[in-house]
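PT: before anyone asks, these are the final sequences, not the draft ones from last week. 415 residues across everything. Please model them as a single complex and drop the result in this thread when it's through.
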Amino acid sequence: MRILKWLLLLMVAVLLWGLIYWNLAAFGRWFTYSLLNLRQDGHLSSAVEFFVFETPKVLMLLVLIVFGIGIIRSFFTPEKTRKILSGKSETVGNILASLLGVVTPFCSCSAVPLFVGFVTAGVPIGVTFSFLISAPMINEIALVMLFGMFGWKVAGLYMGVGLLIAIVAGWILGRLHMEKHIEPWVFQAKMGEAVQEDAMNWEDRIRYGLNAVRDIVSKVWIYVILGIAVGAGIHGYVPQDFMASFMGKRAWWSVPAAVLLGVPIYSNAAGIIPVVKALLEKGAALGTVLAFMMAVIGLSLPEAIILRNILKPKLIFTFFGIVAAGIIIIGYLFNIVL
Amino acid sequence: MKKIQILGTGCPKCKKLAENAEIAAKEIGIEYELEKITKINDIMKFGVMITPTLAVDGKVKIAGKVPSVEQLKEILK
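LR: through. Structure below.
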């Protein structure tokens, strides 16, 4: 019976959520033009409207998505993923690892034990890299926010392209046979017998989802607000087509520049997407913007520093180099095709 | 005497887990010893790949998340 109570509560929550969500645009207009009484079509008013509308919208999307993904993730654990991947041949392994990277709970702080765990279980190195590339890059938050702000085509493109990069880059890294550039202790590490997790019931899964919401939202809300504030500034003050000159299709150097710029910037998906939206509005090309986003989310300096514990510099550079090259190629492709 | 072991390389979540575990242990009034296991090699021996992880007397109880003080009380009883 307790599950019924939970379901009922959930339904009420979702209903309320929808009711508020569909009225946000009206609220943004009312707040900007009636309450603050700002002039229509002004710089300030369009920046304010963007901010007042997007902030609650993005935060609400975030809560809903993180909860849903939390439920999905409660079915997966790194231990299960490791079991699935061990003993798979390379090409199939690369594909599976990239897909599992999307749904397995992962935080870059666990990248090292995960790497060691995979390698000691006999998962090929290239396959392990496929997982390590796809897990942070195809981030569920990025995916759903892209869906919410640009529709399913852009979200689908992002996911497809991210998977492709993870599969191919992992496969190439496997071909390079760089085992000697991994710290030797990794291969000697003894992994204890994996623990049997207790089976979860639905109440546990709902709790797991709610915990995920609390954890993630408390961590990213500040990035979201900052991201939207920057986005609002661009939206209101940057002239139309301003970005076209240096982030447009014709500026050939813009894709590599976007990737180079993106690596040291460390933000999370929730914060970067409002900026992306504003850039696109002002004439930036989709390929360039996607490349920027993938570099920001998928390649981060903190991750490189963590990985230094197990990988020698040459392998880290190769890893980042291949992924960056993949992102650049994809960026160009999009700019040419679209 | 229970041995509460916190597995983690020192991320903020690991500290939070250690704090919560101490509070829980004190509230139920058990005798305990808190041990922080920070070396990757030692963490791996427990068979876990995500941190932070809580083990009691060498047995993994919870991996990859920070449970509430209430949940920890249940585990430590």
